[in-house]
# Entry
Amino acid sequence: MKIAVLGTGEVGQRLAGKLVSVGHEVTMGSRTADNADAARWAAETGGGHGTFADAAASAELVVNATGGLVSLAVLEAAGAGSLRGKTIVDVSNALDFSEGFPPRVVTPDGHSVAEQLQKAFPEARIVKTLNTMNNAVMVEPGRVPGHHTVFLSGDDADAKAETTALLRSFGWAPEQITDLGDLPSARATEALMALWLRLYGALGPVDFNLSVVTARDLS
Amino acid sequence: MKIAVLGTGEVGQRLAGKLVSVGHEVTMGSRTADNADAARWAAETGGGHGTFADAAASAELVVNATGGLVSLAVLEAAGAGSLRGKTIVDVSNALDFSEGFPPRVVTPDGHSVAEQLQKAFPEARIVKTLNTMNNAVMVEPGRVPGHHTVFLSGDDADAKAETTALLRSFGWAPEQITDLGDLPSARATEALMALWLRLYGALGPVDFNLSVVTARDLS
# Structure
């Protein structure tokens, strides 16, 4: 599948690399066509690179791996026409580091980045996922032992199914994938970043994730 | 130990009952001295009941089991003099049901109920805990199988130790108790209620809890 990964940071590089390794044709999108990080990534992996618009235009599916504070501008640069009808896997969090660490978790319009994007691009199919863990765990859930959870929020069942298939290809087992419901449920996982940052402070630099444990047998 | 449980709702009744069963002398506090729920509880368990002020005055430790939207008023009714120097175990969440279900999670002054209470009663020692699960799991963690987590936030080490001892008496194992740090970390767990409400919607009426799973061996 042709996939655009928007964003050249750690998260974008990690997701793009994994997507190449599981067989996709990946183009990394950035603000400018000559972004050095994107060019280096493309040279090392055999992937492509270009502007946000270049990447989105040829993609069948788009991954938003940009910071949540700039994601709206990035998708505007990608262009509504190139997002129309496509699944947009949104892994962003909106973190304001202007007052130091831990950053403040920003909720656009009191809601979520995911809803902000969906509102701006009503013909795109936004799915929020993977935004509650570090990027190493995103693409290699086995780094954290036993049962733990990745959440899914979105309004379009087909887009969620497509996203679930991607998660499965990353190594997530069906029982680890928890569908929280419609896109406004992304408010809950974006708000979770506050806990993640505190846990990072308490646990130190170790891979960790949250697990939903129920009284029902999950095995 | 003499313990005041402020609040006569499901959470207050559950916590007060457990505290009696593990050997404490418990007084349930409510707005009026003749609250029917509190009187019934006291008659059934051998505990005491009275106004918020009555309950707090004689207590060595206070549990705030009122709704977070009214907790400040409740502690004001209890009286600063009766809270001074005491550990206040705050299990509240501020939920606004005025627009239906799921309720909106309210963060007083953009922060947390716990911080709001600490600011109003600087000589009390607020500890936030147990606010991320249903009241049955609070006092009987074994209802949820395997490893799962209760969080702790507070500025006073002695108050946290006292709270940890209570949690231990409820059945929480040391490795299940995660200290998130200072009281502002309560923002993270109060915000978690948004996820809890979504999980409740997705899982239905089953006992569940979140577990922090790390790459380190927790056994």
Q: What stands out?
A: Chain B has one domain: 2-203. The mean pLDDT of chain B is 95. The radius of gyration of chain B is 16 Å. The CA atoms of residues 144 and 208 of chain B lie 6 Å apart.
